[in-house]
Design goal:
Layout: H1 15-35, H2 41-47, H3 52-58, H4 62-87, H5 90-116, H6 123-146, H7 156-169, H8 175-189
């Protein structure tokens, strides 16, 4: 008896297709960083060592690719939260995640001008990703509060805002190093 066909959307992508997609996203991030929103899709395909057809099969438009690059950066934050929670004590996991958050902000600052140039603006992308970041921060804070390492009145979103504010006020080259030091100050001031 013949096995029924699996709907295309339910199938797991082949491993080579998944590798192609990951390579496209990494190369696209680099190219958008250097060239902005007007980066050539053909250049991205060439640098990813794939044909343009493969690129367009995965991402029909430049905006689709750009949004996916940004969403992938946010997904890395969510994955880091899970990994760090499993491997580190609560306050150390929160600290390590805030350091990853600094790296995310650095990437966002580079990608943001291109996101802002998207048709319709970046609001749908930001709405989709804000909740992911907030959930990760809350999960880490809840663990740190439960362990007694963090005061119960500390809002992890305030910690994120403080770091983001530093990125906005600091010089383009030096703010990440200052933000890394600031994480320790924030956490010290948030202890019971």
């Amino acid at each position: 008896m013949k096995k029924p066909a699996t709907p295309k959307s339910a199938r797991k992508p082949r491993s080579d297709a998944q590798r192609n997609r990951e390579r496209i996203l990494e190369v696209a991030k680099q190219v958008f960083t250097r060239r902005g929103a007007d980066a050539s899709m053909n250049e991205i395909a060439r640098r990813a060592k794939i044909g343009p057809g493969t690129l367009y099969r995965n991402f029909a438009t430049r905006d689709d690719l750009l949004a996916t690059v940004y969403i992938t950066e946010v997904e890395k934050l969510a994955a880091a939260q899970k990994t760090l929670s499993a491997e580190l004590p609560p306050i150390e996991a929160l600290r390590a995640w805030l350091l990853v958050f600094i790296d995310y902000i650095a990437a966002k600052k580079i990608i943001a001008p291109a996101l802002n140039a998207m048709a319709g603006g970046p609001s749908r992308v930001f709405q989709q990703t804000t909740q992911v970041m907030e959930e990760a921060a809350h999960a880490l804070a809840i663990r740190a509060i439960a362990s007694g390492d963090l005061r119960p009145d500390v809002d992890p979103i305030d910690l994120m805002r403080a770091i983001y504010g530093l990125s906005a006020a600091g010089s383009a080259d030096h703010w990440p190093a200052k933000a890394r030091k600031f994480v320790d100050i924030l956490l010290l001031g948030s202890r019971p």
